[in-house]
Amino acid sequence: MPASEALKLAQEKQLDLIEVAPNAKPPVVRIMKFDKFRYEKEKEIKKQRLSQKSQELKHVRISPRAASHDLNTKVNQLEKFLNEGHKVEVDLFLRGREKGHKDWGLKKLNEFLSTIKTPYQVTLPPKSAGRGYITQIIKK
Asked: Where along the chain do the CATH 3.10.20.80 domains lie?
């Protein structure tokens, strides 16, 4: 219908004429209260934001001197994060003189990664970062 008729109809019903799809040929409009339209848009945006958060970055911090049971606990936590669909950053923390033996720290990080049972893909290869090494992994 022509825009003038739609506007007249909206005024008769004491509602607003809202352009929904301006790029369509012809443009699509709705007759409704603008406050309700704005509320629905905000609700839709909020829902989209919540669905995007599923790819959140989780952190697991390990030490090269940690006991095997402690490392197994960290592996279990890491696998839980992977199964929930999160990206996981593994941080190997070196202290004091350990910083002088970065090759040893890298070996410990690779040993830790080899104990993960869940299939994963490395998105950020191990790199030196301040006090140790960091790497990022996601589930395959």
From this structure: 3-52
Class of 56-139 in CATH: alpha beta
Provide the 3-class DSSP secondary structure of residue 91: strand
The domain defined by 3-52 folds into Ubiquitin-like (UB roll) (3.10.20)
Cβ neighbours of residue 102 closer than 8 Å, sequence gap 6 or more: 94, 128, 133
pTM of the model: 0.60
CATH 3.30.110.10 boundaries in the chain: 56-139
Q: What are phi and psi of 54, to 5 degrees?
A: -65, -20
Residue 34, helix vs strand vs coil? helix
Measured distance CA(16)–CA(33) in Å, rounded: 5
pLDDT of res. 53: 61
Is 90 exceeded by the pLDDT of residue 56? no
Q: Is-contact 90 128, C-beta < 8 A?
A: no
Distance CA 19, CA 91 (A): 50
Cα–Cα distance measured from residue 13 to residue 105, given in angstroms and rounded to the nearest whole number: 73
| Residue 103: per-residue pLDDT | 86
Strand partners, 59: 89
